[in-house]
Amino acid sequence: MQTRTLGSTGPAVSALGLGAMGMSGAYGAADRGESIATVHAALEAGVTLIDTGDFYGMGHNELLIAEALRGRDRDGYRLSVKFGALRGPGPGFGGVDGRPEAVKNFLAYSLTRLGTDHIDIYRPARLDPAVPIEETVGAIKEMIDAGYVRHLGLSEVDAATIRRAHAVHPVADLQIEYSLISRAVEADILPALRELGIGMTAYGVLSRGLISGHWAAGHTAGPGDSRGFSPRFSSGNVEHNLALVEALRRVADAKGCTVAQLAIAWVAAQGEDIVPLVGARTRERLAEALPATALTLTADDLAEIEKAVPPGTARGDRYPSAFMSGLGAGN
Fold first, then answer.
1. Cβ contact 56:21 at 8 Å
2. Is there a smaller number of Cβ atoms within 10 Å at the N or the C end of the chain?
3. Residues facing residue 28 across a β-bridge
4. Backbone dihedral region of 7: left (phi > 0), alpha (psi from -120 to 50 degrees) or beta?
């Protein structure tokens, strides 16, 4: 497994990270044993970056990750944790809390659930519009100084917010959606990251399975699957988007790889400062994703991919409308 460094101040991590959200019900029921086996398979393959959030399954995901990592060398992996998203007992979200006292409270619970004495990268999941980012980041800086956190991360914020946060404490990386059909970061955010020496962990590289090559027209999301509310999976949009996938499949076939491998490799090819996160929740999907790290895309390959999926051609927002206003970048 190749490694990449998250910005000029962040840790060295595997060139591919494992996003664990799907193991805690985001896409419907997941098998606990298979989820744990997938984490083990990732570690054995050299994956060292594991991403979670304290609100994934209301703590379920952190407890699951703790079980999967039990007995492992703590220096052998890096934990990236998001916080701040508020949940209720039902399926909805209740806003964001970035107050300094809340930051420390969230962190205390995460450390306990994960069974660790430190988090490698700690980041607010979204910007709290009621709290200046300097205050939220200042609290994380205090936790870094106290040894409970190693690095500061951000998630889904705009370039101006990145600059303000970075002025308080160096930011290791920004976690944000980036894929062949979600390229809004390229206009302002990615240039700002590179100017400041900040890395990127890219989630949604397969657009929640839409461009994985495994989603078919007529397939419907099951109970508890958030894709049932996603505009890009809605009737009328999904058929158009899957036509883009079929165009991409022709490029993948010519390259001798799968659609998923090509889509992951495309993100990785956009810069050594970008680490794609794959949300595999089975060993089968992980095994398909791993070879993408060794897939070299030539200039001709990249041109063919751009022809197959030109920027801005996907239909539908990447989140339901109620969530779009909380994002630092559009589609």
1. yes
2. N
3. 26
4. left
pLDDT in tens, 5-16: 999 999 999 999
For tokens 């969230």, name the residue. 106
Q: What pTM was estimated for this model as a whole?
A: 0.92
Count of Cβ atoms closer than 10 Å to residue 325 Cβ = 8
Q: In whole angstroms, give the CA distance from residue 34 to residue 296.
A: 30
Please name every residue paired with 53 in a beta bridge, in sequence order, or none if there are none.
Answer: 82
Q: Closest by alpha carbon to 270, among 201, 168, 329, 207? A: 201
| Residues marked as catalytic | 56
**Cα separation, 35 vs 128, whole angstroms:** 31
The CA–CA distances, whole Å, from 60 to 35, 87, 92, 179, 248 equal: 12, 13, 16, 27, 36
Write the single-letter amino acid at 4: R
pLDDT tens digits, 89-107: 877 787 899 999 999 999 9
